[in-house]
Amino acid sequence: MNTVLYWAASFALVCFALGMVCATVRLLRGPTAQDRVLALDTLYINGMLTMLAFGIRSGTSVYFDIALLIALFGFVGSTAMARFLLRGEVIEP
């Protein structure tokens, strides 16, 4: 692998880790439930991007499949949480 690509992926991993730390702080200290939901969205997006950077860095496709699963479950989870915050229930009768 090219050394520039390796160092770029390493720098991206550090940036995503810092983003996850900031989102965790917002998740724990968020004054409203909406702040906490946005922090969870940020956490799953940064987790997905971290897996993609690991995949680029290692050259294996397993990390790309994991990133796809994180994106799928994160979207479903944030949609369910938004419906719960708006209506008080996830599944309508």
TrEMBL record:
Residues folding into a coiled coil are none
Q: Give the main location.
A: membrane
Provide any one GO MF term from the record.
sodium:proton antiporter activity
Keywords tagged on the record: Antiport, Cell membrane, Ion transport, Membrane, Transmembrane, Transmembrane helix, Transport
Stated membrane topology is: Multi-pass membrane protein
What are the subcellular locations of this protein? Cell membrane
Q: Where are the transmembrane segments?
A: 6-25, 37-56, 62-86
Cellular component terms per the entry's GO annotation? plasma membrane
By its UniProt entry, which InterPro entries does this protein fall under?
Answer: MrpF/PhaF-like (IPR007208)
* Protein family: Belongs to the CPA3 antiporters (TC 2.A.63) subunit F family.
Name this protein carries in UniProt: K+/H+ antiporter subunit F
Q: Which organism is it from?
A: Achromobacter veterisilvae
What are the top taxonomic ranks of the organism? Answer: Bacteria, Pseudomonadati, Pseudomonadota, Betaproteobacteria, Burkholderiales
